[in-house]
Amino acid sequence: MRHLLSTADLDHGAAVHLLDVAEDMSDVATREVRKLPTLRGRTVVNLFYEDSTRTRISFEAAAKRLSADVINFAAKGSSVSKGESLKDTVQTLAAMGADGIVLRHPASGAAKVLADSGWVDASVVNAGDGTHEHPTQALLDAFTMRRRVHGAASRGRDLDGLRVLVVGDVLHSRVARSNAWLLRTLGASVTVVAPPTLLPVDVSRLGVDVAYDLDEAIADVRPDVVMMLRIQQERMHEAFFPNAREYARVWGLGSARFRALPETAIVMHPGPMNRGLEIGDEAADSPRSTVRDQVAHGVSVRMAVLYLTLTGDREDAR
Amino acid sequence: MTTTHLVRGAETVDGTRTDLVLRDGVVAEAGTGLSAAGATVVDADGLLVLPGLVDLHTHLREPGGEGSETVLTGSRAAAAGGFTAVNAMANSSPVADTAGVVEQVQALGERAGYVTVRPIGAVSQGLEGTHLSEIGAMARSRAAVRVFSDDGHCVADPLLMRRALEYVKGFGGVVAQHAQEPRLTVGAQMHEGALSAELGLAGWPAVAEEAIIARDVLLADHVGARLHVCHVSTAGSVEVIRWAKSRGIDVTAEVTPHHLLLTEDLVAGYDATYKVNPPLRRQEDVEALRAALADGTIDVVATDHAPHTSEAKHCEWGNAANGMVGLESALPVVHATMVETGLLGWADVARVLSSAPARIGRVPGQGHGVVVGGPAELTLYDRSVTRTFSTDDLAGRSTNSPYLGRTLPGRVVATFHRGWATVLDGAVVDEDVVARSARAAAEAP
Question: Which residues of A touch B188 (CB under 8 A)?
Answer without folding.
Answer: none
